[in-house]
Amino acid sequence: MSSIETSYDMAAGRANPARVAALPLFALAIFVSAFLLFSVQPLFTKMVLPVLGGTPAVWSVAMVFFQGVLLLGYGYAHLLNRFLDPRRAVIVHLAMMAAVFALALPIGLAPGWGRPPADGEAFWLIGLFAASVGLPFFAIAGNGPLLQAWFARTGHRDAADPYFLYGASNLGSFLALLSYPFVIEPLLPLKAQSAVWAGGFAVLGGLITLGALVLARTVRAEPAPVQTARVAAPVAHADRLAWIGLAAVPSGLLVALTAHLSTDVAAVPLLWVLPLALFLLTFVLAFRDGGARLHRVMVAIQPLMLVGVIFAMVLGARVPWPLAAALHVGFFFVATMVCHGELYRRRPAAAHLTEFYVMLSVGGVIGGIFASLMAPVMFNSILEYPLLVCAAVLCRPGSTAALARLGWPRTLAVAGLFVVLVAVQAWTGLTAKALPVIAYLLVVCAIGAAVLLGRSRPALLMAGAAAFLAVSQAPVMPAGTLARERSFFAVHEVQETPSGQGRLLVHGVTVHGAERIRHPDGSAVAGRPEPASYYHRGGPFGEAIDAARRANEGRPLRVAAIGLGVGSLACYSAPGDAWTFLEIDPVVVRIARDTRLFASLTRCAPDAPVVVGDGRLTLADQTGRFDLIIVDAFSSDAIPVHLLTREAFAAYLDRLAPGGSLLLHISNRNMDLRPVVAAAAAPQGLAGRVRQGAADGSIGETFTAAALVAMVARDAHALGPVADAAGWQPLAAPDDFRTWTDDYSNIIDPIMRRFRQP
After folding, report:
1. 664 — phi, psi (to 5°)?
2. Would you list the DSSP string of 676-738?
């Protein structure tokens, strides 16, 4: 080492205290910035839930919005880094943050945004996010690459390759993601969270100011070059396209996997946290020195994980959901590690750092838009998930070279053959699934063998993945499925029971309604169908509605039902009754009114109006008062928090007749919602009862399903016979339960109470 190099090393590592302090100071600022970024997302999304409802689709659209603003922030950082020297850039950035702090904090819903339209909810939601939280998020979105670029100018001994600081960024995001549902949400109401977040924003400004002082004492004219010829080479268009593709696939796969898990595997609360946490963890593991060996391991085991996913998707419900979820999440983690490992391996010199992160963000936005906005319009199932699984195979090292050796004519011919095969299956309805079970499993095993043999042969591996998609995931509805339609909120399927006696409305693994269409002797059901599934006569719903009639002394009832399903509740209507249904999903309304599928609504209450929109908002629009309000608006075990808060119960009472009652369907596999209802009812002085109804057998055979139902009213007299009936237990909130409000909710508590039940 020359004397000049030695003096530089001493100055960078030991002699200059400012340079020594640069690394921990910039790392802390990047960490705090990332923590704020990933804590504001759930914070503001919770603020939106009372406006649009607590559906998984809201979280997906929120993710797309934040990815888009992140891209703008990265572009802003790139422009600052390119056109201004660090000293001037710091002044501009701090001035912008100060303006945002003064004008846009604390965070809250922007005025003038009332309720979403009946169509175009996604774009309305993006507009609401932009007006309410766009500026604060943008102000810190570019801090990661910007602070890394400034650190590269400090002359610190690690400044030549600052990409490892991206790990600090994602570590902050990772901790924010895990701490929000388990620490922040249970302890702080939304207003307090917003105030604390504004304080964190101010702290971040202080850290950046300190970083600016360090930068002023250490700034170099140019970033130090990375000491390898490979990464110091000029950036080509092919490099930019590779960065975009390698970022787009895991981003889209994250959204698609979350939709697949919540729809087709298990409707488990907070299950979406696991893929997102692993997604962030892959950046921490991949963007560091010494990760080459781990990258080789991930590339080697990816085909093994792909085989597991193939069999999990082929066998479907036959695989226990924890094992299926583990296989899907395991493949996602490995595939994302491969993509992000390739990104780190292809990183450019520090002079191109901000451009590199802009391209990563472009890829993230493309993947998110495809999976969140385009796929629900293009596909009537979660087809984007297997498509992105196959795309992940293309991201393996050597895949593009294998395609190049194959040649564009052959590649296009194979792709065309694949499209033709899928089209023929869709047109004829004949797929490999129509083969005898043994033959079909042999086909799947052959595909799995091709995948395993293709570990060192990229072309064979890609062919195996494409064959799997062609034979098992073609857009053909399986036997027994009469209709399938996808909306902003869910994928709805109408299925015929194996006996042919009934039909079910299904979203993923959850049945949302049933109707008998044939008697056991095969004759068609004529006239009014009998209420089925959760609503069968003799169950809690039947008893509660009968009690409401008796409390109303036999007069016709005026009923508002939040949630339509197949319209089974309409068959409890009597002459003179006035029923109104409030349903957020227009697709559910179309299915319930399609007499080729279900007849309950049209035969039992043909004149009942169905109002499309969020139940809480549309109920407030109704004139007059109701003798009975029914809340039955769960979606695949997702909890509409805004329908179970203290303010929601006050809104129900405002529309409830003096002697009326409120009926809530609170069945849930994973949460005990009885304390939530009891605590919300207590401040209003309501009397309540709850009953767990049992099923006589399989819903497809007896058309009955177990249901947990709560009934509350202003006094016990309004509960009618339910007040003293056997099986109806008093509804009381535990002393240690904190009431949910529009400003506070904690879903971990009901999950733990359900877990502790015998």
Report:
1. -125, 130
2. HHHHHHGGGT-EEEEEEE--SS-HHHH-B--EEEEEEESSGGGGGGGGT-TT-EE----TTPP
Q: Kindly state the tokens that stand for 610.
A: 């169905």
Cβ-proximal residues to 92 (8 Å cutoff; 6+ apart), any chain = 80, 84
- Please say whether the dihedral angle defined by the alpha carbons of residues 704, 710, 716 and 717, taken in this order, is positive or negative: negative
pTM of the predicted model as reported, rounded to 2 decimal places: 0.75
Helix (H, G, I), strand (E, B) or coil at 633: coil
For 675, the 3-state DSSP assignment is: helix
The pLDDT tens digits for 199-234 are 999 999 999 998 888 887 776 555 555 444 344 567
Here the tokens at position 642 are 């805004």
Do 379 and 426 meet the contact criterion of CB atoms below 8 Å apart? no
DSSP secondary structure letter of residue 635:
B
Q: DSSP per residue over 431-453, as a string? A: -GGGS-HHHHHHHHHHHHHHHHH
Burial of 195 (0-12, 13-18, 19+ CB in 10 A): middle
Name the DSSP class of 15: I
Answer yes or no: is pLDDT of 640 > 80: no
726 to each of 286, 541, 654, 723, how far by Cα in Å? 60, 15, 30, 9
Q: Region 289-299: what's the mean pLDDT?
A: 83
Rounded Cα gap, residues 481 and 91, in angstroms: 62
Q: Find residue 650's DSSP bridge partners.
A: none
d(CA 305, CA 315): 16
* CA–CA gap between residue 360 and residue 160 (Å, rounded): 20
Distances (CA, A) of 645 to 291, 679, 730: 48, 9, 20
Contact between 740 and 644 under an 8 Å Cβ cutoff? The reply is yes
- Per residue, the 3-state secondary structure of 546-605, as one string, reads HHHHHHCCCCCCEEEEECCCCCHHHHHCCCCCEEEEEECCHHHHHHHHCCCCCCHHHHHC
Question: What is the C-alpha separation between 698 and 329, in angstroms, rounded?
Answer: 31
